[in-house]
Amino acid sequence: MANLTISNRSAADTPGDALVVALGSGNGAAALAPGHGLPRKTVSHLKSVVADLELAGKVGEVTTIAAVPEVTAKLLVLAGVGELGTDPVALEEVRKGFGAAIRTLTKKKKVAVVVPGTSVELVAAVAEGVALGAYAVSKAGTTSTDAVDAVALVGPADAASRRAVKRAAAIGEAVAYTRDLVNLPPNLLYPATFVDSLADRIKGTKVKLKSYDMKALRAGGFGGTVGVGQGSANEPRIAVLSYTPSRSKASIAFVGKGITFDSGGLCIKPANGMLTMKCDMAGAAAVAGAVLAIAELGLPITVTGYLGLAENMPSSTAQRPSDVVTMRGGKTVEVLNTDAEGRMVLGDCIALASESKPDAIVDIATLTGAQVIALANTAAVMGNDEDFRTRLLEAAQSVGESMWPMPLPNELRPGLESINADLAHKGGAEGGMLTAGLFLGEFVGEGIPWGHLDIAGPAFNDKAPAGYWPKGGTGFGVRTLVGLAESYA
Length: 489
Hints:
Layout: E1 3-7, E2 18-24, E3 31-32, H1 40-52, E4 62-66, E5 75-82, H2 88-103, E6 110-114, H3 120-133, E7 150-154, H4 159-183, H5 191-201, E8 207-212, H6 214-219, H7 223-229, E9 237-243, E10 251-262, H8 282-297, E11 302-312, E12 324-326, E13 332-334, H9 342-354, E14 360-365, H10 369-375, E15 379-383, H11 386-399, E16 403-405, E17 423-424, H12 432-441, E18 450-454, E19 460-461, E20 472-473, H13 478-488
Parallel strand pairs: 1-7, 2-5, 2-6, 6-7, 10-11, 10-14, 13-17, 14-18, 15-16
Antiparallel strand pairs: 2-3, 4-5, 8-9, 9-11, 12-13, 15-18, 19-20
């Protein structure tokens, strides 16, 4: 993770391998964003380059220029940021623009970035874009050597701006950890090693870890988790991360789906359908990242993360369609399709989370293909409380993560009826994203506001990198969960 600092020194005199300057697109023409403070000769040169190359200043447009007069840095990078502003949409464009620019510089060690203005909102957006874009994917089992070592922001260095930069660094570190977990191959990341990683990561923090092994899962009545994981040589786990500050203002439970590899079980997926299934634990990874970030920021909110970890594999011991299992809390569930396994580990964890009666529960999961078809890279938000669902959506908007409200129609509930159990674990072909939400709602404790985030689309980028998203794990959801906690603080 790059070291982030901010100072009000001259941009032109700031040393480094590269200097990043914003290029806006207001009034139909590209122009250097305000606040750069560059010398007249430098500005004249850059204006000529912009005109000669017919640059537009659109988001994601990155132009690298060498030997710029009166600039100490070896390279100057123009980062397209669209129309500058401080509304949520414009700030997200800033994040994407600077993220795209810094992503092209990951082999550079020291980079300076000019904040295009003086507002703390712009400082925060630039710092977050840089922190998210500076990530470099590591080869399996290694540590990346391509990441930028240090980024010096050039802008207002007042106390509020320094706090914004510190927050961005914490978010960037948490998202990077989340991405690392998602990107690990399933022969290296399985339930036991996931727990080992958490144990190592929380050292020196105020986060505590408890985990349930197979024996404890059976004894604790976690039939959904046991059923999903029983077909694998890698036994399932539930990991519980807790952060409990003094004078806490609220308590929130985060629940994450952690299927470290999903073959579909006996209802096996086609070969091509398994290619990205190492990412089926992205919800659990996001919960881990969020809890760590909240603790790092010292928010006065009690947060407990419940990670349901299992590997869904076919074998002679695997769960069968029509099996009936008893979930945490005593409800029985008839399994209709072993490839709809995520809701089973989530149901157990939501029931466990409800037992401590938090002020709210949020689960996050790469849950349904229906979400991808309906909303692509926009996550779906469902829940049992309209005000809380709105609060979740507002948190997502404030941090720049794209989410959309979806209903939980009562008329679909009969599709979850079973003659053999309290519940069937999935409904028919219609409204699969919604019936999955209805199923999860059955395990929420009475009177507890609950939100469900289906992030199947945005959790993993199997296309070219874009903005601050690398190829592979995106770390989606971490910022929304942190933003939600901040709304209580």
